[in-house]
Amino acid sequence: MTERRKAERAELLALQRLRLHLERTPLGVIEWDTDFRIVTWNPSAEAIFGYAAAESIGESGYMLVQGGQDTERMAAMWAELQQAKGSTRVSMSNRTNRGEVIHTEWYNTPLVDNENKVIGVASLVQDITERLNTERTIHYMAHHDALTGLPNRRLMQDRLNQAILQARRHQKHVALMFLDLDRFKLVNDTLGHETGDYVLRDIAKRLAKTVREGDTV
User: Fold this and answer.
1) Over the stretch 127-170, which tens digit does the pLDDT of each residue have?
2) What angle, 0 to 180 degrees and rounded to 10, lies between the N-to-C axes of helices 184-191 and 193-210?
3) CB neighbour burial string for 171-198, b if at least 16 within 10 angstroms, e if fewer
4) Lowest-pLDDT range, 17-26, 84-93, 120-129, 140-149?
5) Which of 1, 94, 140, 170 has the maximum number of C-beta atoms within 10 A of its C-beta?
6) First-to-last CA distance in the chain?
7) Coil, strand or helix: which one is 115?
8) Given its phi and psi angles, is residue 156 left (phi above 0), alpha (psi -120 to 50 degrees) or beta?
9) C-alpha to C-alpha distance for 128 and 24, rounded to whole angstroms
10) How many CB atoms lie within 10 A of CB 117?
């Protein structure tokens, strides 16, 4: 009796820890049945997607995608998990209850019985929208001029090298034009640097509208 009570207490403690982790983890925890319907939906999943557990449980996973390629990606993810080939990691875009598009990473594991038959799927979901936006901003700032938004010297050199290689491959020519702004120093000296900055931004816009989409200013 004593050993049985110890085992019951240990099992109860493990369940309490698991429930606490489920409720407090920053990752969305979702479990699915074999028909790809939600059976478990933790508070972080609610925060990420904007759906309460009462709205989500019993619903199809396709309610979380906006269609197109992401629907196809989710269908492929589910088909692979149904074959119990192991855990998967998938990146996709999802649509929240508020209609916002977010970017997520999914870590999925098929749940199998003693005969290795799939009886469900467990997913961990991470919202990486902010991280992606930060990475894109850093990449943009590293390759574009802060004042005009045009490609900077680093990106220009890379594009020029690519254009030269492509021209050689197709036996074509590359045109490179250098433009100088006459009396620009006079604008800065007499009207101030703010006016000079305005002139640079305006000229940059005009030049960008003049060339083809594939050209670089």
Assistant:
1) 999 999 999 999 999 999 999 999 999 999 999 999 999 999 99
2) 140
3) eeeeeeeeeeeeeeeebbeeeeeeebee
4) 17-26
5) 94
6) 82
7) coil
8) alpha
9) 18
10) 11
